[in-house]
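Researcher: I'd like a structural prediction for the single chain below. Treat it as a standalone chain; there are no partners to consider.
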Amino acid sequence: MSGVTAVVVAPGGAGAEAVEAVEEKTEFDVVIDDVPSNARIATIKAVRGLTSLALKEAKELIEGLPKKFKEGVSRDEAKDAKKQLEEAGAKPDANLGGDEDNEKHADDHNKDAKVAFYDARRKI
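Model: Treating it as a single chain, here is the predicted structure.
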């Protein structure tokens, strides 16, 4: 016998259910990527409103970004936190997997690909 192993998967059986269960995320992390200097005070207020942090801790949280703001929260809580932080002027990322996040990540990927393409052309 050679070192070949065959795996047979029954279509539509338990394997399909397992794949669907893996795709659906139930816990999300909210990361604060950036806070412009003109939005620091509003962001600190938003952070304090969303957490039980004191002023000093909230101020420390928005320094040295990116940082995880909330970990393992529900989709609704992550959406709410992301919305409040955006309204305050921060640039959060909750990676919710919704249409707006997919479009944002696709745009970022396209920009990265274009930059890499033009950098490669300059080297020629």
